[in-house]
Structures are given as structure tokens and as C-alpha cells.
């Protein structure tokens, strides 16, 4: 039952907003008593925290699946964007923005985990791109990783509308790629831009 509550609550939080969904709404939607929810979660914040952890795990499972398809480094980044678009396209408001605004403690905890995972993923992508000749050999990998995740996390934490965040992320990805690409990388970037825009 606990997993069912997390799943339904998370769907509702993402669709309707973390702030606006009440425990009553969740109970009503699931045709269970509020008491049943409180049997597993002491309060709404505890439910949100567990729900965001489930989202975090799902995102990283999907990211691992994209990496396993063995795209080149630039194509891989565009495929990651597609994965996020499919996952969040039905939402008007950015889930990260809502979480930061209404539940900053949960957001901060989530971001610490996300940043560490993203640092690792971005580093792997850059190292892969260098080995493929798509990114320059002399790239300062640490700086490039830091610049890129700073851009992405700033966009998601400070952009209210999901559609606007998605568009800004596209510009950040192009900016990031142009900054580190070789001439072959720029050709691949233009190819991906023509496919994905």
C-alpha cells in the first residue's frame, strides 16, 4: 500500500503542484481514508520527500538506459533531453521550481544528490566525447562540468514554466557543446540541432 500511495501522490504532485495537493485529495483519489496515508507517512512533507526519491531513482534508471544505447557523446546529451521531455512534458509548472519555492528543505536535499549524480554523468559524457574526437582534448573537464550543471540547475530551480525551462535547457546544451566541441563535434551538433528542433 505504501508504494501505491507514493506512486499516486507523486503523480498528483507533479501534475497539480506540490503545494495544492492535500492529503485529503490523495485519499479521495485513491478511495482510501486519510488515516491509511498517515499510517505510512507522518505528514505531507514526508510523503513528498519519499516521492521525490522515487522520481530521482526513476530518472537515473532512464539515464542509465540512454547511456547503455552507446550513442556518441553529443547525441547522448540530446537523447537525455528527449527522455526528460517525455517524462515531464505533461506538466505546466516546473516540478523543481515548485519544490524549491514551497519545500526548500526537501529541494536542497534532493539537489545535493542530483548534483553529485550529474557531475558524474557530465564528466563521463565529456570524457567520452574527448575519446571520440567530438570534444577538444585540452578541455578543462572540471570547469566544463561545473559550468554546465550550474546552468542546468539554475534554470530548473528558477524557471516556473516547464516549457520555458525545456527551451532554456536546449540553449544551455548548445552553449555547452559549442564551448568544448572540436570541428567534428560542431558538425555533429548541427546535425542534432536539425533533428531535434
Automatic annotation (TrEMBL):
GO molecular-function terms, A-Z: DNA-binding transcription factor activity; transcription cis-regulatory region binding
Alphabetically ordered keywords of this record: DNA-binding, Repressor, Transcription, Transcription regulation
Residues spanning the signal sequence: none
PROSITE patterns, per database record: HTH_TETR_2
One short Pfam name that applies is TetR_N
> Which SUPFAM superfamilies does the record cross-reference, listed alphabetically?
Homeodomain-like (SSF46689), Tetracyclin repressor-like, C-terminal domain (SSF48498)
Q: Which residues bind DNA?
A: 22-41
Query: Entry's InterPro entries?
Result: Homeodomain-like_sf, HTH-type_TetR-like_transc_reg, HTH_TetR, Tet_transcr_reg_TetR-rel_C_sf
What positions does the domain HTH tetR-type occupy? 1-59
Q: Which domain of life is it from?
A: Bacteria
| Gene3D superfamilies according to UniProt | Tetracycline Repressor, domain 2
The record's section on PANTHER family has: HTH-TYPE TRANSCRIPTIONAL REGULATOR RUTR (PTHR30055), HTH-TYPE TRANSCRIPTIONAL REPRESSOR KSTR2 (PTHR30055:SF175)
Q: What is this protein called?
A: TetR/AcrR family transcriptional regulator
